[in-house]
């Protein structure tokens, strides 16, 4: 009983199939190469999310944010939190994801999870996973986009170390959280 | 000579276009689905590995080739600075979060805008993680900044020319793709044997089930 999966009442509009993984990877590689050639830097995601978080918390605790060693630089010397390439790029990611979801007919309000997990538990574990990832990404100065993908393509030593560590951490814990997914 | 490095607002406009393409491809690859992403860690759907390494190889070969032709100034391309300790420890922690949460930041954005409430929850958690890190910074800032922070490539580490390392990466990626295809077939057969005789649904179908089955 896949109670975690929402029921869709539109059988007449089947979703489009996913792209072949190697085709999708090639397309992603071309986008990444284009950002190197135009901007001199690659793609990212977590940096923009850290900036947005800092801005949100600034409304309630401005002094703490401005003086914080990890977040303060976003506001230092009159800098504006949104004045960064990654923030605009992430706005594009959201628009592109939405356009792709609508045209593939995969847009659907639901809580997605493994076959054995209740939606409320799934939401809690998703939050916990986000919390852990957020900490890890700030420590590593990037995520799968900004470190593994971007740094991987420029042969950055630390990014390759990060990439193998991510797979190591995920495979290391997968057995213990199998009830979430299998 | 590339990179072009346009003016700030031209760059921001390009950022939205590049981000749009990035998000579009992530959705088409199936990365708006936590089940599909997490299946990577149970060896039933190796799409994450295939997409990621195809993208890395494509961009790497493009950069290497254009640099050797003198069209790109590689020294002007940003290379993530090396902080090995924080990158390895942060990567391990990040990987745990990926397996528990089912997303990484970029894919969670794509999933959230295509209606996945668990992705919204992941994003809120991610913001929380950023704050926990900021709160702990007085204690862990020393470790977080440990390392040389220098521009160090795999080729520097291995004392080999970049082109040779690029060939190594291509060979490794091709080996991983062959391994991934073999593993997926092997897991399908194993799951088919484990289920009852009229096994109509393969694990691959299940990975796509949120859509296909309904």
Task: Describe this structure as you would to a colleague.
- The complex is a heterodimer of chains A (182) and B (214).
- Chain A is mostly helical.
- Chain A folds into two domains: 1-110, no CATH class; 113-182, no CATH class.
- In chain A, 58% of the residues lie in helices and 0% in strands.
- Chain A has helices spanning 21-39, 46-58, 62-67, 85-103, 119-139, 144-153, 157-174.
- In chain A, helix 6 crosses helix 7.
- The longest helix of chain A is centred in the C-terminal third of the chain and has 21 residues, at 119-139.
- By secondary structure, chain B is mainly alpha-helical.
- Chain B has two domains: 21-79 and 153-192, no CATH class; 81-152, no CATH class.
- Chain B contains ten helices and no strands.
- Chain B starts with 7 loop residues before the first helix and ends with a helix.
- In chain B, 48% of the residues are buried.
- Mean pLDDT of chain B is 93; it is low at 209-214.
- Classes of the chains: A mainly alpha (182), B mainly alpha (214).
- At the A-B interface, helix 1, helix 2, helix 4, helix 5 and helix 6 of A face helix 1, helix 2, helix 3, helix 4 and helix 5 of B.
């Amino acid at each position: 009983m896949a109670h975690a999966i929402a029921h869709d009442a539109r059988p007449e509009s089947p979703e489009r199939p996913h792209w072949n993984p190697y085709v999708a990877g090639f397309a992603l590689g071309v986008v990444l190469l284009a950002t190197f050639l135009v901007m001199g830097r690659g793609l990212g995601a977590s940096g923009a999310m850290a900036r947005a978080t800092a801005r949100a918390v600034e409304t309630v605790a401005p002094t703490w944010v401005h003086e914080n060693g990890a977040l303060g630089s976003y506001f230092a010397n009159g800098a504006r939190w949104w004045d960064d390439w990654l923030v605009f790029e992430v706005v594009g990611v959201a628009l592109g994801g939405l356009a792709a979801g609508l045209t593939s007919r995969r847009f659907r309000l639901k809580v997605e999870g493994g076959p054995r997990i209740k939606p409320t538990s799934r939401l809690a574990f998703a939050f916990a996973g986000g919390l852990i990832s957020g900490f890890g990404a700030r420590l590593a100065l990037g995520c799968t986009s900004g470190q593994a993908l971007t740094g991987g393509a420029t042969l950055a030593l630390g990014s390759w170390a990060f990439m193998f560590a991510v797979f190591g951490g995920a495979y290391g814990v997968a057995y213990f959280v199998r009830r979430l997914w299998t | 000579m590339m990179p072009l490095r346009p003016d700030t607002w031209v760059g921001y406009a390009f950022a939205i276009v590049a981000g749009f393409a990035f998000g579009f491809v992530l959705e088409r690859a199936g990365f708006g689905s936590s089940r599909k992403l997490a299946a990577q860690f149970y060896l039933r759907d190796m799409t994450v590995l295939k997409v990621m390494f195809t993208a890395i190889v494509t961009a790497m070969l493009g950069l290497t080739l254009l640099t050797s032709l003198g069209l790109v100034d590689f020294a002007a391309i940003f290379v993530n600075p090396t902080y090995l300790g924080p990158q390895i420890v942060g990567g391990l922690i990040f990987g745990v979060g990926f397996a528990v949460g089912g997303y990484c930041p970029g894919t969670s954005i794509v999933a959230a805008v295509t209606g996945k409430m668990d992705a919204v929850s992941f994003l809120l958690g991610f913001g929380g993680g950023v704050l926990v890190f900021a709160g702990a910074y007085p204690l862990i800032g020393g470790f977080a900044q440990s390392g040389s922070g220098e521009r160090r490539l795999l080729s520097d580490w291995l004392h080999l020319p970049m082109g040779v390392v690029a060939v190594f990466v291509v060979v490794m990626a091709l080996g991983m793709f062959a391994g991934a295809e073999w593993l997926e077939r092997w897991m399908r057969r194993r799951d088919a044997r484990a289920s009852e005789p009229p096994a109509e649904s393969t694990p691959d179908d299940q990975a796509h089930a949120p859509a296909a089955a309904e």
